[in-house]
Amino acid sequence: MAEQHPDIESVLLSEDDIRTIVSRMGAEITKDYEGKNPLLVAVLRGAVVFTADLIRAIECPLSVDFMAVSSYGDGVKSSGVVRIVKDLDTKIEGRDVLIVEDILDSGLTLSYLIRMLQSRNPASVRVATFAVKDIEGKKPAVAPTYVGTHVPDSFIVGYGLDFAERYRNLPYIGVLKPEVYGD
After folding, report:
1. Of 67, 24, 31, nearest in space to 48 by CA
2. pTM of the predicted model, to two decimals?
3. For the chain, what is the radius of gyration of the CA atoms?
4. First CA to last CA across the chain, in angstroms?
């Protein structure tokens, strides 16, 4: 295992844990999309690392495209008001679309994204998320088809997840020390 970064309070998911989760998800997606050619839509930037691993774990033909969205809010929580920063280059009419997300918390931004993509008449729109954040008393606005794991309501980083564009390159997922983000 990689050495733990000094800003990390604890490691939630090791590299081996992540590999196991991605492999399982890849097998599920392969089975469900047998005989199809899904378009995987990675939501930038956080989902890039997960998407790269996931496409290697899927054993059916697929295409990949990217979207970048910005949600307005107080900087910590999304308001659900979304601006498309980078749209798809691929036409999705009649395609099976699988949105690939790194982490799902409120689901407000993702809910908007799903509605927007559905307006383009794809054959289907599903969601694969590496992690769902368990927030006490709240359910996300979206129920993903594929869930890698559940994580506590902590500030987590690594494996594509960041704080101020840092820590994305950690090969594990860890809880960031509160003194780092000023809580």
Report:
1. 67
2. 0.91
3. 16
4. 28
